[in-house]
């Protein structure tokens, strides 16, 4: 500019100045709503709130045979007709059973009561004008259209719709939010008063949390559960009597891998703990399926333990749940009422082996204690940022296609995209259409949170162990990670098994890819793509489309209409392409 001024005539200079004067300054960015603090003062602010969305006054049935299933008829309250064996209380007098169907495990499991609340908890964070809301919700998985409704509500108030991540815990004792666990295959399992309360309820939690923001300091970190020998079987260097348990997880699909990291973030204000945010993997199914009570499962116990011990409000965000991360069916060290380990007379652990609410409480307390231990890093935050990448998921799996066609999903058909923006539309005869989704990267000081719209297999996030049996199928017999391997498959190319039940003597439903890799294209696991010190997977976030399976190991033969062997997860995944889509879009996002 100096060079231009020194060589220009006064008239030219005046003309240039006049042109600059006519230019309008950039429009001021409006402040965020709800009282979110946007000061440029290097101070971290936080607010937290919880809403109780537990269904009330719903109709229940009498479980006469105690099998946790409704064996009556939907239009026979008194069970007087033939084969209508169990009555229900027809509260509204319409002659029809208007019950709350529980998601996960078997269908036809109606709630008869409430064990503990079903809640949504929101924490709002801001730093130097940047802000984000993280929400943990006690549900199997909220479909994208419900999250879209919520984002629309927020955007109408001036809130940036992309600054929210809602993670479902995946509780198998919560009301059905997908629609596929109803009384039969043709009837939705959603309870309208509940699903219709989701967006308004979370909205209320966000507005209350934002209005109560205060200055806080942060501490964070990660605990690796497999460093505890009581949580590992002998093949993994531990003393747990279950040889397949790793990091407290009983992975029922080969290879045995564990997403056993527990991340925690503590936010402390002048008057004590404001909030604790915890992310952990593991299906909240530890209370089992032989009961009919609504529950947050181990997540509720985890929150209660931390809140009693440390104060504040605890937010739970699910991790990498797929493939199959669960402590259910395993063995845990027993604890007493104070959370201390129970030992026998010789000083050895006493083991708890049976699922149920005592098992759920034990795992919840163990996760809570791991979260407390994780809070080792108090590095001041220098940045808070949010990025996201939208994409479309093709629905080409028969399970989801049937659910859409029958109309039982909690997603209207109008949300399905059927045009040229849907990959392979018009080319793939198996394609039903596409549903929207996205991935979010949230940087919170030294922690980077990475979200996924489903149950992510841990290998997609953490990578595949560098072990010979991962590459060579002939080495899998007797290997600690390949406990269900069929030796007749050792010489069979998995490419031949990908769309088959058997090949020769090989049971393809027990076979897995060799080499076992996460993708044929993007080979970098997501954790290795992320900046920061602590890398945190956030599952079932802002959408839910089932399991996210590595495409090279996806068996397209299995479905809800066939046996599935060691490939159950494929029956509950929107697409064989899901894993590759997530990896590719994460690669785009970080670049």
Any idea what the radius of gyration is?
A: 26 Å
* Largest pleated sheet: 5 strands, mixed
State the end-to-end distance. 34 Å
The tally of beta strands, per DSSP, is: 23
Strand order of the largest sheet: 5-4-3-1-6
Helix content: 10-25%
Low-confidence stretches: 1-21
Number of helices: 12
Average per-residue pLDDT, rounded, comes to 94
In terms of DSSP E residues, the strand content is 15-25%
Principal-axes shape call = globular
Structural class: alpha/beta
Overview of this structure, please?
The protein is α/β, with parallel strands linked by helices. It contains 12 helices and 23 strands. It has a 5-stranded mixed sheet, covered by helices on one side. A hairpin with a 2-residue loop joins strand 20 and strand 21 (506-507). Helix 3 packs parallel to helix 4 (192-211) and helix 5 (298-310) crosses helix 6. The two termini are 34 Å apart.
